[in-house]
Amino acid sequence: MRTNERARARKIPPTAPAARKRNHHRLLQELSDLRLQLKNSEVTIRNVKDEAVALRRKQAALLCRNIELEMAQQELEAQKREQETLKQSHEDLERKVRERTEQLSKAYELLRRIFASIHVHIAYLDRDFNYISVNRAYAEADGQVPEHFVGKNYFDLHCDDEIRAVFEQVVRTGEPWTMYEKPFRSRANGRGETYWDRSLQPVKDLDGSVSGVLLSSINVTGRKRAEEKNIRLAAAVESAADAVVISTERGIITYVNQAFEKITGYSKQEAVGRDQHMLDGGKHDEAFFRGLRETIRRNGFWKGRLLNKKKDGTLYNEDCTYSPIKNQEGEIISYVSIKRDVTEKLWLESIAQSVETMNNIGYIFAGVRHEIGNPVNAVTMILEVLKSKLAHLEPKAIEGYLDRALNEISRVAYLLRTLKAYNMYERPDLQRVAIGKFMEQFLSVVREDFRARGILITVALAPDAQFCYADPRALQQILLNFLANASDALQDRKDPSINIRVFKRGGMIRIEVEDNGCGMTEEEQKTLFKPFYTTKPKGTGLGLVIVKKMLTMMKGAIEISSTKDKGTVVNMAILDGTGREAGQAAGQRGHSA
Fold this sequence. Notes:
By secondary structure, this protein is α+β, with helices and mostly antiparallel strands. The chain is built from 15 helices and 17 strands.
């Protein structure tokens, strides 16, 4: 504004009054205008200020509103967060409830299955002894289904005043009750008297009051009977005439009976806890006992004869059977042995054998006198004839006499060869023999000869009879004797046949030779093993005697059964060769009974 005034002042000439007046007037007018403008400006300013105040008020109100909105938004968001939290908590709670419900359902189902399937008899009764629930085992014991019992009273089915008193006591006191091997007789199932382990447990509410009872029972009748049987068995074992010894797998004695004490002189207290080798008589080495244990593992038992020593040092012979005792896994945990003192029996048998030997010697001398004496007498007579009449005899007659003499001498030679065979196998060479191969070789030698005689030979070899333990030379001589006897018995028989069967029985190899020949009477069978007793015209009566001796030396045996006009069965037993090595000593079973 000052700039405008200075500009106007410069335009007024200093020498012109009128102009100055006009200028003054104009200036006044301008000043008035300026004042008006200023007034208007002030009004405008006031209006602007009022508007600014109003605006500020509006802004303040708007700010407050925004603050309120923000606070409301925050509160809303907080509420939403709370709702989300509540919703999440609700979902978590529902999930936990579902999980817990499932767990409870599974637990209930598991308990229900256990309750239903457990072999223990369980019944749940209220405090008045009415059935609420029973499991399947309880129901089936009476031939019923579980639903049959629900709602019925226990004592309507089982009248027992003693048990009623026990039930009432459990309800009254809240204390459990248990009894073992309680005799019980049911009217429903007709099983008679049985024995039970029984337990009665009170079922209590939260306040501790008894609301029912849980009855559990286990049928121990089988155990009770087994215990009674074991008691009887123990009494029988204790009073048995034979010694009974139970030992660990290491041979430590854990039990002996009275017979053991009587036989050995050791008391129970002295024997239990000691090694069985305390009885060893010194005849059997460690290899023998290893073989004994191996035989038990292979065959399930060992049977043989031992030389043992009593407490006082006296030696005695015992027939013994060892058997293993196994656990459920089939492992040997102990051994039981049954022992019988056979010292006196062997002494008596030796006396009888001596008597029999003397009788046999008598038979042998008589047989030798007969079998040699007759040919000698015949040869003597022939020589006397030749001596006295030689000059008068024709050459052909002389030749006839000499042939007769040679025949008689041949008979003596045959007898001497037979007697030599009797002593040939005093010490047999026992070895592991493959039965199939042996029989094949043996039959290849004899089959053609028997086929020429019209005799059919069949062989049946059992799969488990693979090896025997014998002297192959002696075994061949034995079978040749059997077949020769069968061949003689089959003369003039229709469809003659010999059936050979090889099988395993009782830990021994059995060879059975059966023919459909003429057979023998009972009287003839009694003399089979007597020297020089024979029913064959050209026999010596020594064949079966030699066979029996060879089998005895090989720890074998022979049995013969025959029916007149039907046939004969010869059955011999020899040691099983399974598990044995060739040339193995017979010590492991050299004392087998």
